[in-house]
Amino acid sequence: MSHPGKNYDFIVVGAGIAGASIAHEVSRSGAVFLIEAEERPGLHATGRSAALFAPTYGGREIRALTRASKHFLSNPPPGFSDVPLLHPRGCLYIARADQHEHLNHLVESIEASGGTLLRVSAADAVARVPLLRKDYVIEAALDPDAMDIDVNAVHQGFMRGARAQGTVVITNHRLETVERSQGHWQIELADGQIIRAPILINAAGAWADEVALACGAQAPADRSRGL
Known about the structure:
FAD/NAD(P)-binding domain; 4-stranded mixed sheet; 4-stranded parallel sheet; 29% helix; 23% strand; elongated
């Protein structure tokens, strides 16, 4: 026996760090239904993540996004978390004698994009990391702004905020059948309840392809055939 349908503004599939943060943000402007396949949010990649806040990591765009996120992580909204989200760590880039130019290029590109890398002598590098071989390291550069991220605290903060803003969270429900009709996505839960929303956000992580296929996306052609 099917149950009456419920209408939302957004359906978010996946309650890991991506889905939780998306639900937290979009719930400010609409009703959100967050569906998670596992018994609890963040069971897989999010729950196993050892994240580093590293303003010197990646290309220029990634570094800019990292720096832009620092204010939120350093000063989360009231009630977001009872513990600090960032903890000092530091990140050391080391170089052999033949890598001098590579290290120079790294330092210059970081500084040009607004970041900071401090030149460190070989002796200082070894003092910081005693496991380093003294005959290997010639010079180094230190990212003093690199910090550990408390992933669980960030994830729980997003989940807490999403729920406080009205997000409905359901676990142990794997998305299998999805229909698109009259401008709305429609999913059916195990108890027969119908959930509808004009926008469905795929935040299923490693299962994103499966969700996309369930939503009608076409699988890419097998280009290996005939080769």
